């Protein structure tokens, strides 16, 4: 019987930039999106890949609309992190922004990976599978995060 040959996934040579959006409510809930890949399910902060020519803030507005149906206004850049695969085949730079809802209706977007969207109590973040695992950081830092702990200078192309 001939062996099945699989194509190897190409190794990335440039990091992927992902924008994640932290939207909270006055009653201490946070907006999360459930992903389903095969038989795996996990939660993520809404957001996605930064497109060429797009600012972090523009990406946040677009991704939230696509994934949740909500319209947002971005408040601030609050965290940065990296995720590098142990074999160095993938490198993701995560940019975290805070935002607030200004309109729209909560719904699950059309992407096949999207399995749900909901506001979850902040104190539940430690009890769920959240990728990347930033739940505790968000809980501990959120009161300070909206105070401009990182200054975003915007697009400085001259």
From TrEMBL:
The keyword Nucleus is assigned to this record: no
InterPro entries associated with the record: Nudix_hydrolase, NUDIX_hydrolase-like_dom_sf, NUDIX_hydrolase_CS, NUDIX_hydrolase_dom
Superkingdom classification of source: Bacteria
Molecular function as annotated in GO: hydrolase activity
Keywords: Hydrolase
Pfam families associated with the record: NUDIX (PF00293)
Cofactor: Mg(2+)
Domain (Nudix hydrolase): residue spans on this chain: 15-146
Record-stated family: Belongs to the Nudix hydrolase family.
Protein name listed in UniProt: NUDIX hydrolase
């Amino acid at each position: 019987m001939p062996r099945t040959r699989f194509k190897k996934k190409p190794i990335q040579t440039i990091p992927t930039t992902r924008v994640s959006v932290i939207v909270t409510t006055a009653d201490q809930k946070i907006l999360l999106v459930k992903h389903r890949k095969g038989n795996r399910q996990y939660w993520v902060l809404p957001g996605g890949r930064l497109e060429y020519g797009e600012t972090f803030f523009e990406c946040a507005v677009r991704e939230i609309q696509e994934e949740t149906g909500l319209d947002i206004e971005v408040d601030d850049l609050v965290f940065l992190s990296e995720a590098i695969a142990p074999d160095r085949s993938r490198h993701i730079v995560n940019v975290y922004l805070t935002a607030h809802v200004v309109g729209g209706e909560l719904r699950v977007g059309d992407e096949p990976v999207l399995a749900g969207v909901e506001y979850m109590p902040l104190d539940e973040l430690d009890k769920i599978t959240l990728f990347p695992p930033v739940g505790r950081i968000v809980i501990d830092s959120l009161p300070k995060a909206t105070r401009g702990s990182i200054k975003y200078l915007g697009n400085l192309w001259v």
